[in-house]
Specification:
Elements (H helix, E strand, L loop, with lengths): L2 H12 L12 H9 L1 H21 L4 H15 L3 H13 L5 H8 L6 H24 L2 H18 L11 H6 L5 H18 L6 H24 L4 H19 L4
Amino acid sequence: MTPGAGIRLAVSWLTVLPVRGPDKVDRAKARRAIALAPVVGFLLGAVATVLLWALTGAGASAPLAGLVTVAALALLTRGMHLDGLSDSMDGLGSYGPPERARQIMKSGGVGPFGVAALVFAIGVQSFAFAALADAGRWFAVALAVAAGRVVVVLACRRGVSAAPGAMFGALVSGTQSPLTGAVWVVVALSCGVLAVPDRPWLGPIAIAVSVAVATLAVRHMVRRFGGSSGDVLGAGIEISVTVAAAGFSLTG
C-alpha cells in the first residue's frame, strides 16, 4: 500500500470528502491510514481556518463565525466524532457492567450525559475559535483540529484491544507503534510554538495538556467499556480539540 493510498483511506474514514479508499481493508492498511490521521486533521484544520477567516472578513461576528466553523467541521466529518463523544459520555454515565454501557452506546438515542457533553464541546470550541479569530491566531485553529487526530494515533497504540462487537475498533486497535505516536506528539509540540507567537510557551503547553487529558479519558473509556471502539476514538478527538482550542485562546 503506497503512502498515497494510505492518505486516501484516512481521508475516506475521517471525512465526508468523496475520496475512495481500497476495496478491501486489512489491519496492515488500517495501520498506515491511522498513522496518517494527523495529516487529515491538519487538512480539516486548514479548511476550518479559511472558513473562519472568510466569515470574519465578511463581517460576521467572531462568535457566529466560530459556531459556523464548528458546524462545518461536524459536516465534514459526518458528525461521527461528536456522535462518538455523545455515545461515550452516555456509556460512562451508566452504572451497569461494560456490556450494559456498550448497549447504551449502540442504542442510537442521546441521553443527558451525551447532551451535556455536546453542548459543552460545541460551546467551548465555538468561543475558543472566536477568540482565536479576534487575536489573529489562525494557525492555532488548524493545529487544534490536527491535535485531535494525534490522539487517534495514541489511542490505537499496541496493547489497546477492541471492545467486543466493535468492528472499526477491531480493525485499528493495537496497530500503532509507540514511536509513531511519539513522533506525532513531538511534531505537534514543535508546531505549538507557532500557534501563539507572542507567547511561544503557551502553544506547546496547550498541546501537551490536550493530548494528556484526551489520552487519559480514552484510557478510562477503554477500561470502562472493555476495549476501544470508533465511539471512543471520536470522543478522544473532540476532547483534545476542545482542550487545545481553549488553551490556545488564553490571553493571560
